[in-house]
Each structure stands twice: as C-alpha cells, then as structure tokens.
Amino acid sequence: MQSSELLPWKFNPLFEKYSMQDAIKKASEMEEERAVWSQVPLLPRIYSKGWKEWQDMPGAGLVGDLIQWWEDDRKDSMGLPWYPNPTNCELVAKGEMSLEDYQVCCMRRFCNVEAGETAGAIGLGNAYLQHERDLRELILWWRFDEQTHQEMDKIMNIKLLGIPEEKLLRTAINYTERMAKSPMSPVTKENIKTLNRFQVVRDGPPLLMGCIMLAEIENPWSSQRTRPALVKYYNFPNEALLFVNVHTFIDYYHIRLGQYILAKYATTNELRELCKAFFINTFKLQHERAAELFKELSGKKFELTLKKEDTYLQ
Ligand SMILES: [Fe+2]
Ligand SMILES: [Fe+2]
Fold it and tell me: Which ligand is nearest to the CA of 216?
C-alpha cells in the first residue's frame, strides 16, 4: 500500500484562481487537448466542441429516451434532501450534514467505487473478448480516468477527512471481495433488479458500461452545487477538493463516451430494452438506498454498513 501524495494536477489550481464557471471552462479546454494527445483517433472526434455524431447512429433513440427519463426524474426528485446521492445531496449543499456524517458518506463512496473499479476491469476484459475495437478503447480510457478519480478520492478521505489509510483500504477491499463473490448470473431485463451492479458489469454484455457512463450525467450539476458549500460551510481547502473539482466538468465528456457506445452498439430491440432496464434501475436503486441512508442519518444511527445496493450509489 502506498501513501497518498498531492500531485500538481493541472486542472486543480484553476479552481483556486478563477470563478468555478471559468475554471470549468478552462478545464474543459484542457480536457479536449488531453483527448488529442491520447493517441486514440476516436477520442478527439468525440471530445470536439458540438459533437453530435451519436444522433445519426442506430441506438440514438435509446440514448435520447434515457436522457429524457433522467431529466424527468430529476425534476420529480429535486428538493428531496437526499437527492441525488449521499455526498452530493441537498443536505450537504445547504451545509446541514454534520462533518462526521459527511465523512462516513465519503468513505462509503470510496468503498463502492472501489468495487466498481474491479467490476469495470473485468467488464473491460469482456469488451476485449468481444473484439469491438471502439468499444474496448473507449472503456479503457474511461476506466483509466475513473481509477485516477479513485486515487483523488483516497486523498480526500485520508488527508482531508482524517480516515486512516489502512482502515479505508481494508474496508474497501473487504466490500469488493464480498461483491466479487456474488454468484454468476445471466443478466436480463427481467432479473436485473435482483442483481448488484458488480454482477451486471461482470456478467452482462460490455455495452452496459455505456449506461454507467451516461448515468454520470448527474455528476457535473451535483458537484457544481456541492463545491461552494464544501468551501463555505465546511472550510475545505481547494487542494483537498480534487475529487469534487474534477467531477464538475469531466463527466460532460464521459457522458459522450456513453452516448457513442450505446448509439453504436445497441443495435437490437433486446439490447435496447436491457440497457433501458439497467439505466432506470440504477437510478431507482440509488434513490431507494439514498433515502434509506437519510433515514438512518436522521435517526442518529449512521454507521458504515455496506450493502449490495450501495454498488448503485454514485
Ligand atoms: Fe469519476
Ligand atoms: Fe466519469
């Protein structure tokens, strides 16, 4: 296990120097440049300004439907104190969550993302076995980004929130191991509600990872809402907000990866229905789990109990 170091991330000082909106604009330009330097020919195209290529691809209708579903759901759910997820909920945005509870929420996030990283690595391997070159390249790029975010979250948990590294990593590993032991299962639109997200990614078609990318649509606005509160009410310094800062802009691009993958590879009705079921289920289970956690929070019995439903929290 290595210790956590603060590296000179290029995007992060922007959030200290400029207003959040200007920082997001400048960081987004850097992101477009990063895509050019990635040496993956497809990426600069997808990351270029005004990219809409997905709208002319076979699964465009599905992508449009999923985005519409999410927007409707957000309208219905705004104003709920736990929406959309524990670390970015309204309670945090208003500075009404205690620091102790916020710490537990961050630790929970680290643990469920850790399990997600492992499932994603297996899903990436499945994409390689499917021999679809665009699919594997985009998933690989996305997984790499998400692993870097996980390291940023580790820094936040350890340096800012004072959670001992050994305790954090041990808890995350134990949870990952537990999820990895979930039985192998076919993934269908009928049974998807009964499976945790580790199982879906491990045992389902790799295309489903496009749904997870698209589901990151909630991250930019919720991170942009939370960040000012973390500075104002919790006095967190910018260098500890790496993880939050990066999610104010990077998922604008990850959403595009999801749009491309779903629009290109959801070519049959069966696949489209499966994707729809997974996408909607992801948010429904996230809502249920977040509401349940909120109740525990109000009851002052909030402890780190990780259930399989936590795999759906973002
Ligand atoms: Fe991320
Ligand atoms: Fe992302």
Answer: 2
Q: Which two tokens stand for residue 273?
A: 């229905």
Give the percent of the chain with pLDDT over 90: 82
Distance 211 CA to ligand 1 centre (A): 14
Rounded-to-integer distance, Cα 122 and Cα 226, Å: 32
List Cβ neighbours of 280 (8 Å cut-off, separation of 6 or more): 69
Q: In order of start, what are the domains of the chain with their CATH numbers? A: 14-312 (1.20.910.10)
**Nearest C-alpha neighbor of 9 from the set 157, 223, 162, 155:** 155
Distance (Å, whole) CA 127 – CA 132: 7
Ligand nearest to the CA of 151: 1
Percentage above 70 pLDDT, the chain: 95
Q: Is omega for the bond preceding 84 within 30 degrees of 0, making it cis?
A: yes
Tell me how many helices (H) and strands (E) the chain has: 14, 0
Q: Give the per-residue pLDDT at 280.
A: 97
Question: What is the whole-number distance in angstroms between the Cα of residue 277 and the centre of ligand 1?
Answer: 23
Distance CA 304, CA 174 (A): 13
